[in-house]
Please model this.
Amino acid sequence: MDSRVDALLEKMTLAEKIGQMTMLSATSERHESLTRTGQAGAFLNITDAHDIARYQKLAREESRLGIPLLFAHDVIHGLHTIFPIPLAEAASWDLALIENAARVAAREAAATGLHCTFAPMVDIARDARWGRIAEGAGEDVVLGSAIARARVRGFQGRDPADPDSVAACVKHYAAYGAAEGGRDYHTVDISERTLREVYLPPFKAAIDEGCLIVMSSFNELSGVPGSASEFTLRQILREEWGFEGFVVSDWDSVGEIVYHGYARDRAEAALRAVRAGVDMDMTGFSFSHLARLVEEKKVPLELIDDAVRRIIGVKVRLGLFERPLRKPERVKAVQLSSDHREMALAMARRCMVLLKNDGATLPLSKGIRSVAVVGPLADNREDPLGTWSALGRADDVVSVLMGIRAIVSPDTIVRHARGCDFEGDLRTGFDEAIAMARESDVVVAVLGERSDMSGEAHSRVDIGLPGPQLQFLQTLQATGRPVVLVVMNGRPMSLAWEAENVPAILVAWHLGIAAGTAVAEALFGDVNPSGKLPASFPRTVGQCPIYYNVKASGRPRGSTANLKVGYVDSPMTPLYPFGHGLSYTRFEYSDLVISPESVALDGALTVSATVTNTGERDGDEVVQLYIRDPIANTTRPIKELKAFQRMTVAKGQSRKVVFELPAADLSFYDTEMKLVVEPGTIQVWVGPSSAEGIEESFELVAAEPAR
Ligand code: GLC
Model:
């Protein structure tokens, strides 16, 4: 590959090299002419197969060197067949299904002629106010890293050059999810230890899985903008991790270095970005200043050559030079195929999280006499598509009302009223819905967020049910009829009143095209909910950021036991913890065994336990393994997820779960920022969430000195 790339580099003018470093958005006459003259290397936001073919033809046949364009798009959870949003998929903890969902997205994207998707987004998010928590895998580094790998495998397949594969682009490098206050695009100021222990591992996991492209982030990181950081882009990404693909900026994040106050103008921004290691400038045209900077010897030509070498190298790796122009007619055969629809339903079935189910309110009987289906998300086919819904269409979505109508018996009376809106305080729709509730055996309230209430540039200071929805729910509850709450959301929400007053709450996220079918199947028992929260649900937004793997504090202990640690007006614990999710059956844990009981620092241990289904129906359980290192060379979290396994346990059956845990998985950065595994006692829990489990411990022991 190198010789081919070098041979091409030899022939390129400086203008053509800078052209390869330029990504443009959408079609236009100007973009066509820039393509003809070799001043564009890649495009985003061109998703029509004919347009892609037309632009590729211009590049291949009319530009001087015929270097193929790379076409990218935000295929985040599907292109036409829209799957549940990534946060929902994370709630399935089902790596095979998550990989499969990415595979379907890749297949539909590749059929259109796209070569790359701007995914997986792997930003760890501990603050539910941040709108982009919807796009990632939640708050935990181990779950997030496993999902990052699965998504890269799904997008890139066995070979990213395959006709059904696309290059993955892991984003947003780095630590974008740690924005203060959950304010999107805003300041990130965290310690290097937190950066390396919490925010970087999912990126490393994606790159270790072969991810070909990295996207640099908008945010500053401890004083340096993510798209100008030599520390993260060169020292860590290139020197420590050996990443050989290319770095594309986020949308004009090179030019925005000026607004961060880190460059006086776009020329200096371009200089800082290319020195740091950004290879391609998305839409900002800041790299057009590079020609002069090279002539003025402010930017060494080899930096340009290195960037172009990496970009061309990825194009060669993707087989773009050999790939024939796409046949647009192929798209029809692939998009929204029946097996893609089936896979979207299979995924949706596993993402739903049953938060509570007092008195076995759920599942409902299909023979129920009458049911009122109310709320702004009940007969809604637009919002279940969620944020970043690419080419998804509302017509392809099954609403909850449609799903319920399809599943109940023909004699069941199904009533519907919208009841209220997502915003404002209009109560005019309440009466109609209340009247229906009074006549119905059960009320299904489908409430929550519109798809545009989460995602990019949609952080919120209030994460309760938006608008008049809570008042609407309280009015429904006051009728005395049994109310089931179905929440559709792009983030953890604060549901304190709901948790106190509504007997059953099912979190349905934004589940994509199969939303209504999956929700109806869960409500009426065809599906046994099995999702587990990938992010903590706070009692109130005042608790944010909130996450399970917090550090211990020095109080309350002994003489300070009577002091209120944390807040005087709220417990420290979330409403529902990371890893929480109920089932229509019950699982009990027993026989936790750790062997050996003493483990060498470079050894491994086996942890096993028995999971028994003591309920009336089969179910899936996500068994979680947590540890705690109570005494260490730096303070350690009170719990850390280290492994998990999703398993089906038939009713009345017991199954043994076994985890193989290398001691290296217990490493952390010590006070000198060295990655160490230390001798000492390690506590272990195996259980259904971060808040419960059976406990044992083992010893990590330093090797005996050689005699
Ligand atoms: C956006 C997002 C990024 C996306 C890119 C291209 O601003 O930050 O996630 O991939 O621009 O649409």
Notes: The mean pLDDT is 97. The first strand starts at residue 22 and ends at 25. The CA atoms of residues 146 and 220 lie 26 Å apart.
